[in-house]
């Protein structure tokens, strides 16, 4: 079994399982494997909650999961890190600590970070009516009572700082949504109108009798004369219990009687408030229970999404007459849930009644037309009415009657089971109830207004009650003694329900304003970089000479900024002759930094230059994290150079290459001149010749970097070599020149073929092959170099150079064999070893 | 992270001077400048759009239209969910360039890219060189959103982005239905070395 699936099955479709961790925690004094889950609601992902599940049997997940606790991940959660996990607790519930053993440090960090972020937006301590985490009330029974308490500690409130600032990094993230939601909430009055809806809720256990009486007094919330009849309410909610008699034979109910009741009440309501027309918008019955919702005709469009959910309270397989009808609807843009229940009877069944209340709140569920699930707690206003059947404890019948006669109701209510359970066992703890300043509703002699029937040990009690949760205002709460057909008196209540009515146009307007401030804030905080130039021309670039151009970067924004060179070599605009330094960096506000553009043309770059005239242009992208990208274009004005050029072009150019105003190849195409040997090559060879062939170390010693630089430049400009130019530097440049040629003097495939002929046949045959197949110009230059090198072998007594050694040095510059092989530009069919190539060349030097 | 909170990347492509930057500035900041500079780079701007189905956060990349930056555009459309191809209704050449952009997107762009075509400078309709019918039928043939816009007069700008937003939302709900979020579970128990060893013995 997959734990993720198992846990997901426990959640609703509208919820996301963000993290799941198998941890160890203390449960009933023992360490237990548990599932620690982080859950969010899809429509508001920043509202996260901690869920702790316990598999009923360890690792036998089929045994199901028990939801131990649900806590909103708000600033009330305190996390204390430990070496082997963490502790967490609820701020106002500091006696209980949950000790979690886990080695997942990331989980702890995630929790801490989220709480930190949430703290920015949380305006008030979390409580039952908080604007956030409404979805969590679906799991109401797993939320500790301390967490739900309505009366939050105001002292705490004032000491906590509320920052409520959107950080730049929160843009586009969940936290931004939290901020927006919060801002919309703050500005709610701008787009919502409170419609005070006058709602009458009545509950009555009719004891299976009737309908027969006038109910005008009930609907008008009138008992004694001193109570003015209520002016026409906007809504009337009628909750009946035992509207028909149930027996073991008739457990379904009595449709005829139900219809009678419905039409009777309907008529009576319309008679009670002449000049007004009421229409029934919702009705549901369950056994003896009947709920009806009437609204003024003019209001009917504002009541929507009426859904019902019935909970049967069967007891040990016996389907009794107890249960509840939960009915929900939207009243303008507020949500209302009405529970009409009939709970277990008898004084000694208080505990069972408690359980039944828990069952109702757990099982009463609605499916909205959006396919969303809601439970009874997920509503702005919840009214809990019915025959709750709670009695009076520990009092003799006589003393109860005496106190009633003396109208000492508050004394009696000390013994009221519901009040006690509310206080001591958190039953309906978050619900309010109006002051009871009226006679108990039960149990009267039928046909009398105020005579209690105490036979069968039935004491008078306030069985029939109306409680509420949410910010509704109770105007009246009482009973109708003058309705006499039942042993219960009808109980009435009148509420002012401030329903929110959103003006869609105003709401859109406020929303766009809030979005705009967020956007503005974001644009304000977005990184802003200023670059001194985005078009750079670099002139006087020379072969193998580093040139640096400096740009300045300035952070002109208010926040820290990170920049980086975005490499996109595959897009072909970045060139290897450019190195940007640094490639990334950070600037604080107003800081200025240098960006170095290092330009360097080496061998590879020089060769490409001759093939691709665009090669001296380059665009690179400087990106700013979270902001815009800059394109910086560089154009190099590069001096013509013999390095990287081809022999074929070079022989056509009598003037110094650096002085050319056009590309080398363009110029060569037009030129009619033709030398045998490029003047640059001849100059180097002549220089070395002039120094004799006897000195030791030629072609081997490194030479001087500065001198070499000047030799290269002199070759291109035609200037004389500097006075102190030496043979070591010169010999190095000669090798470099050959190595750099756009095309080698001997192409690798010719070399391969010649090598094979040499092996299988003879050197003269190989030589003939080359002479016949090589172009004239290359051949001439090749032999020119061979002849030149032979002079050194003739003087090997002095300089110690051998043909083998020289062949080894010159083979690669002359053939580019290895280079082209490595670059994949030449794929030999027969493998030719370096020694074979060297051998061929040394044969030329010997011959 | 939840899909809803992610930014939707939109890229604007089109020839230089067709009004890409002007469209973005009109949409994001409700401003218009006739002396706006050509874009050299890719400007990033953002905006939250309010829809009845929820909100969408646009991250908008306004690219440089000049030809020499052409190949860099790929960096921006490669990760986009939507592309707005802009042409100037008074300039036939820019319309042809727009078609080429579409061709490039088909060949090299991301799959499922939402494409919108904006015929900008609607206020200069008397100088129109590309008839709306032609552009519209081209848009239809490639399944693209088509809008005539004017950054100068605001005409069509909001609607252009709204239609894109709606299409993004639609696409997303399909995607999220296809890939149900995967989540890894780490367990204090399974990470204990002892357990791992036992497993080894069995194998
Ligand atoms: N009449 C008119 N002119 C517009 C409109 N939109 C843009 N322009 C003008 O067209 C010119 C170019 O606008 P930009 O927004 O810079 O064009 P662009 O597409 O961003 O150009 P690049 O950044 O170079 O790719 C500016 O002078 C704008 O004022 C429009 O709707 N109507
Ligand atoms: Mg632009």
Descriptive keywords:
heterodimer, A: 847 residues, alpha+beta, 7-stranded antiparallel beta sheet, 6-stranded mixed beta sheet, 26 helices, rod-shaped, B: 203 residues, alpha/beta, Rossmann fold, 6 helices, 36% helix, globular, disordered C terminus, binds guanosine-5'-triphosphate, binds magnesium ion
In short:
The complex is a heterodimer of chains A (847) and B (203). Chain A is 32% helix and 28% strand. By secondary structure, chain A is of the alpha+beta class.
Structure in words:
The complex is a heterodimer of chains A (847) and B (203). By secondary structure, chain A is α+β, with helices and mostly antiparallel strands. Chain A is built from 26 helices and 30 strands. In chain A, a hairpin with a 4-residue loop joins strand 29 and strand 30. In chain A, helix 5 packs across helix 13. Chain A starts with a helix and ends with a helix. Chain B is α/β, with parallel strands linked by helices. Chain B has one domain: Rossmann fold (3-Layer(aba) Sandwich), CATH 3.40.50.300. Helix content of chain B is 36%, strand content 25%. Chain B contains six helices and seven strands. Chain B has a six-stranded mixed β-sheet with strand order 2-3-1-4-5-6, sandwiched between helices. The longest helix of chain B has 22 residues. The N terminus and C terminus of chain B are likely disordered. The chains are: A alpha+beta (847), B alpha/beta (203). At the A-B interface, strand 1, helix 5, helix 13 and strand 30 of A face strand 2, strand 3 and strand 7 of B. Strand 30 of chain A pairs antiparallel with strand 2 of chain B, so a sheet runs across the interface.
């Amino acid at each position: 079994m997959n734990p993720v699936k198992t846990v997901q099955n426990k959640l609703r479709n509208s919820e996301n399982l963000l993290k799941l961790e198998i941890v160890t925690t203390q449960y009933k004094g023992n360490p237990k494997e548990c599932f620690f889950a982080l859950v969010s609601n899809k429509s508001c992902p920043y509202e996260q909650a901690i869920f702790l599940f316990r598999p009923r049997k360890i690792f036998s997940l089929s045994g199901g999961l028990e939801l131990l606790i649900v806590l909103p991940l708000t600033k009330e959660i305190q996390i204390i890190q430990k070496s082997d996990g963490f502790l967490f607790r609820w701020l106002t519930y500091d006696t209980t600590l949950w000790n979690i053993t886990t080695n997942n440090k990331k989980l702890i960090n995630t929790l801490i970070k989220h709480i930190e972020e949430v703290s920015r937006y949380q305006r008030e301590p979390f409580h039952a009516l908080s604007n956030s985490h409404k979805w969590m009330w679906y799991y109401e029974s797993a939320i500790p009572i301390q967490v739900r308490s309505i009366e939050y500690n105001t002292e705490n409130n004032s000491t906590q700082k509320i920052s409520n600032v959107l950080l730049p990094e929160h843009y586009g993230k969940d936290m931004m949504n939290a901020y927006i939601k919060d801002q919309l909430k703050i500005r709610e009055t701008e787009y919502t109108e409170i419609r005070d809806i006058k709602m009458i809720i009545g509950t009555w256990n009719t004891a299976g009798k009737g309908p027969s009486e006038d109910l005008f007094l009930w609907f008008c919330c009138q008992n004694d004369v001193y109570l003015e009849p209520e002016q026409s309410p906007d809504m009337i909610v009628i909750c009946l219990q035992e509207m028909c008699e149930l027996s073991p034979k008739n457990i379904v109910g009595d449709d005829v009687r139900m219809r009678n009741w419905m039409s009777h009440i309907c008529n009576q309501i319309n008679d009670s408030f002449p000049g007004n027309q009421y229409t029934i918008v919702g009705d549901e019955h369950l056994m003896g229970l009947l709920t009806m919702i009437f609204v003024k005709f003019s209001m009917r469009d504002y009541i929507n999404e009426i859904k019902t959910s019935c909970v049967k309270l069967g007891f040990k397989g016996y389907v009794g007459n107890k249960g509840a009808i939960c009915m929900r609807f939207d009243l303008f843009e507020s949500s209302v849930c009405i529970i009409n229940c009939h709970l277990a009877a008898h004084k000694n069944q208080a505990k069972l009644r408690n359980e039944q209340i828990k069952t109702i709140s757990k099982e009463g569920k609605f499916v909205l037309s959006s396919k969303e699930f809601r439970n009874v707690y997920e509503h702005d206003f919840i009214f809990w009415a019915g025959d709750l059947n709670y009695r009076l404890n520990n009092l003799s019948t006589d003393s109860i009657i005496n106190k009633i006669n003396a109208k000492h109701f508050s004394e009696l209510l000390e013994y009221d089971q519901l009040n006690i359970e509310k206080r001591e066992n958190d039953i309906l703890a978050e619900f309010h109830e109006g002051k009871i300043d009226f006679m108990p509703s039960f149990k009267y002699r039928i046909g009398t207004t105020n005579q209690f029937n105490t036979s069968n040990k039935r004491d008078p009690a306030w069985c029939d009650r109306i409680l509420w949760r949410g910010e509704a205002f109770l105007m009246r709460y009482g009973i109708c003694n003058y309705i006499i057909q039942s042993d219960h008196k009808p109980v009435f209540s009148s509420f002012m329900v401030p329903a929110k009515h959103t003006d869609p146009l105003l709401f859109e307007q406020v929303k766009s304003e809030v979005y705009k401030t967020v956007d503005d804030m974001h644009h304000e905080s977005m990184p802003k970089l200023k670059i001194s130039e985005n078009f750079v021309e670099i002139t006087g670039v020379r072969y193998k000479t580093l040139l640096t151009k400096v740009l300045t970067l300035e952070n002109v924004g208010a926040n820290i900024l990170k920049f980086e060179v975005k490499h996109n070599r595959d897009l072909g605009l970045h060139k290897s002759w450019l190195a940007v330094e640094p490639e990334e960096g950070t600037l604080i506000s107003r800081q200025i930094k240098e960006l170095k553009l290092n330009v360097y043309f080496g061998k590879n770059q020089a060769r490409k230059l001759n093939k691709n005239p665009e090669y001296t242009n380059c665009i690179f992208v400087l990106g700013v994290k979270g902001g815009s990208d800059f394109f910086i274009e560089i154009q190099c004005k590069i001096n013509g150079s013999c390095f990287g050029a081809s022999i074929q072009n070079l022989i056509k150019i009598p003037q110094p290459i650096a002085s050319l105003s056009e590309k080398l190849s363009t110029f060569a195409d037009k030129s009619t001149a033709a030398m045998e040997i490029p003047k640059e090559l001849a100059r180097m060879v002549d220089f070395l010749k002039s120094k004799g062939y006897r000195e030791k170390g030629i072609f081997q010693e490194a030479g001087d970097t500065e001198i070499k630089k000047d030799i290269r430049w002199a070759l291109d400009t035609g200037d004389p070599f500097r006075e102190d130019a030496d043979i070591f530097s010169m010999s190095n440049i000669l090798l470099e020149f050959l190595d750099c040629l756009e095309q080698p003097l001997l192409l690798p495939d010719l070399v391969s073929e010649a090598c094979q002929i040499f092996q299988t046949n003879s050197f003269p045959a190989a030589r003939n092959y080359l002479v016949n197949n090589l172009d004239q110009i290359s051949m001439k230059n090749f032999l020119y170099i061979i002849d030149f090198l032979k002079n050194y072998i003739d003087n090997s007594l002095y300089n110690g150079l051998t043909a083998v050694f020289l062949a080894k040095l010159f083979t690669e510059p002359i053939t580019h064999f290895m280079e082209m092989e490595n670059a994949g530009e030449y794929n030999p069919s027969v493998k030719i070893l370096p020694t074979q190539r060297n051998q061929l060349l040394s044969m030329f030097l010997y011959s | 992270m939840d899909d809803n909170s992610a930014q939707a990347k939109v890229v604007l492509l089109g020839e230089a001077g067709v009004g890409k930057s002007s469209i973005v500035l009109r949409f994001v900041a409700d401003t218009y400048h006739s002396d706006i500079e050509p874009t050299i780079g890719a400007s990033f701007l953002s905006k939250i759009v309010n829809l009845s189905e929820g909100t969408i956060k646009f991250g908008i990349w306004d690219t440089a239209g000049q030809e020499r930056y052409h190949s860099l555009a790929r960096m921006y459309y490669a990760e986009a969910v939507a592309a707005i191809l802009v042409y100037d209704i008074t300039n036939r050449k820019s319309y042809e360039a727009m078609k080429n952009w579409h061709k490039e997107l088909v060949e090299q762009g991301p799959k499922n890219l939402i494409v919108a075509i904006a015929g900008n400078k609607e206020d200069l309709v008397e100088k129109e060189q590309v008839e709306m019918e032609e552009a519209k039928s081209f848009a239809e043939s490639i399944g693209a959103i088509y809008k005539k816009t004017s950054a100068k007069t605001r005409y069509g700008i909001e609607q252009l982005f709204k239609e894109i937003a709606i299409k993004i939302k639609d696409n997303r709900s399909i995607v999220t239905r296809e890939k149900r979020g995967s989540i890894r579970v780490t367990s204090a128990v399974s990470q204990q070395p002892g357990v791992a060893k036992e497993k080894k013995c069995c194998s």
